[in-house]
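Researcher: Let's run the pair from yesterday's discussion. Sequence first, then tokens, for each.
Model: Starting with the first of the pair.
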Amino acid sequence: MKDISLVLKMMLKEKKDILISVFFGFLAGITAVSLFAASGYLISQAAFAPPIYTLMILVASVKLLGITSAVSRYGERYFSHRGTFTILKNIRLKVYDQIEPLASRILQKYRSGDILARIVGDVESLQHFFLRVFYPPVVLATVFTATIFFTMYLSVGVALTIVAGMVVVLIVFPSIFYLFQKRTAVSMREKRGALSSTFTDYLYGFRELTIFQQAEGKKQQLDHDMHQYEEMKAKENRQLAIQEAVVIFFSFFIAVIVLVQAGLYVSEGNLAGTLLAMLFMIAITVFEDTPSMAVLPAHLEESKASSKRLTEVWEEEPRVEAAAHELEPDVPLHVVFKDVSIQYPNEKKPAVRLASFQIKPGKNIAIVGPSGSGKSTLMQAMLTFAPIQSGHILVNDKEISKIAQESLWRQMNVSLQHNHFFYGSIYENLRFANKEAGEEACREALEKVQLSHFSLEDQVLEKGTNLSGGEKQRLALARLFLRDASIWLLDEPTSSLDAITEQEIMGQIEKATKYQAVVTIRHRLTGLENMDQIIVMNHGEIIEQGTYMELMGKADGYFKAMKELENSQLV
């Protein structure tokens, strides 16, 4: 039950449509049985040439039942499908609400293709739960029960035969089929996730794969994963076809038994001959919808596997109470790190250990150190994207975990190492940072980062593939000039630029951030002379802090050694 708790909760929200669809399903089923039963009785009675009014009543009853059956079937389809689509919508919203706050951590644990397979394929699979798992046995059981009570009035023996068939169809067969289906359902979901991940790697890495002549090998792996998935899907379809054939054969077998049994009763004088056709038609019709029970185990196991794959994404993550504290928009941010240690999931050692420093309004801070020293992780922690194991990050004397994320992000201007660009115009990509920005403000921003040769109508392809590395960095920085923020967080903002362009753009940033704090992460040590504070990191630890002159004044300082090494390489 726990495995399908997600879809059950969503079903409870749509209990009105579910109850109405079950009612119409029962009405459609019982009128169909009644229609065929009445038709069989009409044929039998007509053979004895009864009074015309008797036939007229029977014919009118058959017509009324036919109309009622058609209307009921329409109502069943309408309300059951409306409920299903609403349930599916609610599941999508639930999945988004659960995953969105944890996106940064989840993407560190799962491949993007696997996540895509879960939020698309597994969510789609759950639409079958109500229509294929919950609904059929409920409707069949109610129709069977009502039919049994009516049939017992005519013949107890025939009623017991139908009960036996009902038990086999509703309980025995589904249980047996479930045991077979359970072996393949989980593997099917995993194979689909693996296929999606391989395809994503092949699609986004095609250029690099081609350059290094590895595209053919990746394509063979993709073909192999696709072939395995198709084989498992074909095997599953064969199983379902066999199971459906077994149920259909058994249903006709029960009808034949009822016909033989009723014939014996008629020959023995224990049953009126006019009821023979009626009982046979009842037996055929009451089992008419039983093929749906053949596919029920497959959809049940598929729903359980899909629901489990979805919920495990967020259930394994620690849940954090929604932060209620809103930062005052006009108050500059003062950030304090106190002995902060950060360790990513599945990593053996922490990315940052016992980091302590402050970010004060109006100060320029540089975080430097070799690659992998933990510089970017500090920025991720300020954005609440990195998991803090110990220590405290205080923002205006408040724990960062108690501050509403949206309130925090509104006061931060961020340029990451890899910034995302959307398919559209330069103008649309700039206004992504500020929807109120006009064309003139966007042109000024482009001028500040030396992209004035771009027009606002120029197109940006998906992920900015038509832009150079330097153009991407400058376009990302141009966004920041369009919005007010208390802190600018810049992760290698000019690593792809030449020294002259870098100096001019950093000068523009300095002019725009006279009263704001600027935290710059960089490898190059040029242009740090005017920094208010330089934080030096190595192997996840802050090993030095101070101004440029203070660090250069240390005889055996790590920063001084790095600077001298850089200068020697530039000579």
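Model: Moving on to the second of the pair.
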Amino acid sequence: MSHSIKQDLRGLHRLPLALCLALAVSGASLWSAAAWAASNDNNVEWAGLFHDQGPLYDSAPEPTASTPVTLTFRTFKGDITSANIKYYDSADGQFHWVAMHWAANDATGTYDLWQGTIPATSSKKYYRFQINDGTATAWYNAAGITSSEPSSGDFFVIPGFKTPSWMKNGVMYQVFPDRFYNGDTGNDVTNGAYTYAGCATEQHAWGTGVTANVSGCNSAVFFGGDLAGVDQKLGYIKSTLGADIIYLNPIFSSPTNHKYDTQNYYTVDPAFGSNATLQQLIGDVHSASNGPSGYIILDGVFNHSGDSNCWFGAQSYDAITCPQQGAYQSQASPYYSYYTFQTWPGSYSTFFGISSMPKLDYGASGSATRNQIYGNSGSVVQTWLEQPYGIDGWRLDAAQYLDAGGNNGSDATNHQIMQELRTAVKSVNPNATIVGEYWGDASSWLDDGTEWDGAMNYNGFTQPVSEWICGVDESGNSAALVPSKLDSWLLGTRADLPIDVQQTMTNFLGSHDTSRFATRCGGDIWKTYLGLIFQMTYVGTPTIYYGDEYGMQGGADPDNRRSFDWSQATTSNTAVALTQQLIRIRNTYPALRTGSFMTLLTDDTNDIYAFGRFDQNNRVAVVLNGTGNTETVTVPVYEESMTNGSQVTDLLTGTKYTVSGGTVTLSVEGHYGAILAQ
């Protein structure tokens, strides 16, 4: 049975069984069958229903308080008798109804387009659709289609909430500074340069193992990567690859290579350079002289400091003299309220029991800790956003744990802190971004426009994509997904979030906290190809963890932080060349960035997943082959309103196809894909 017929039977689930079988036997496509079947017959044809908040279906995805929102809903032509928008308005706590009217047919003549308008107000609203064919009713919201009215999963309207357009339209490149490139050998941390927590520093040669010679001292291994190195390689990131957003793992002074135990939030670590080095790097990232004008995001480790921080003062590893005693040294310290002690000084709240990472206590609104981290003009958050630095945003480490009293966060106090932090960030730069680290459903911080702009998309991209392509989760544990389950997962995680948040979620194949994607996929470079194609065409901000673009190997921390192999950083490496091509394609087609998303095909038997991305200018069908074999795939592109006789071009190969019977049939190599555009 062909792929198209399998898809047809999925779409025709509400037709009589005899008709479904007859269509399958005859080989008729859904494109021709739907028009014949759709009528006012007390039966809503679910296969014809579609809406999302793409530019063709939502007139104002980021409305102001004075912007009415006109919504468009698609049905099969002649299929329904009426349609309504039902929306909940937070201003009065009531549901309201808007009757929709027929507006037009699509280009193929297969579909009717209905419209209705939600009036402009400043209040948050949540909407769903009621679709009627005589006595039959279907309901449609962001979570899907149901026969009875849903109680969750509605679309969002949040007046006044806007996520940065550069995040929606950009490609991010994540750098772990010590392992990227050594641009200044004069600041290298040498063997025995200092001892911290019983571990003497070890200088390892570039390209050698990341494991320390002394057990338990992996954080004391240094390779010499620094900010000058990042600066010198901006041409590779921005021009060769085409990425325009740089995200740096922590760069502030700290005794370890990872620097998640900050000693001083106001000083760049000497092994990475100086504040002036950072200022130069920021200016060069912003410049258009070495590739596209870009943006830079720093890692904010604000849940905890290091125990060598002058605010705490439990350990020292250098000659820095603190102006005042820290909380560990004296209860009279001006920083005593910054931390939570159960029994001073030896028992205190930490990050997951790690004594070298004492947890910051944010106290009540207006506390000294809040003012120091984000609340004042001289605070950490605002200092680096302001001139002469002017960074473009913060990634918030362990963001759900920030709280008062040494608790584990994820409570009302955490949300209050995040709301205040957002106010502080946007007061300096309204176009700056806030990206939270959260591994599960981050919607609590993202669903009302008052906290983060986006989050690291472990839940909505990294894990499901790894399970489908590699057969393991992001930690390497066995877990396999078939395309239909993958699609359901992705639909559910998109439905959790407003559309402009979906578009700024950072979609990465791996990070500094996961094993490498290539390793999870058994070293099969073709699976890296497939992951890259998926990453660059899906909803969200593609984020490349340094080296993933060439298939860098690595197990769990610290092996996932190997030094970059610069012999691979050329387009003679096929994965690097593909990354360059994909970023160019993404930059050329706004539909891949802010267009609609529509599932076109889920074939569990042949492991095929296809989806559409489209806007007013282009229609793109992305076909992904999860098997190792070349597969012939028939894609129902009429669902994107591609007309018969029109041509599509595979942007990866240049091959042209003609739409016939509402479909395009093509061969797709194993663990690869096609990007069909018109």
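Researcher: Give me one sentence on the second I can quote.
Model: The CA atoms of residues 178 and 225 lie 4 Å apart.
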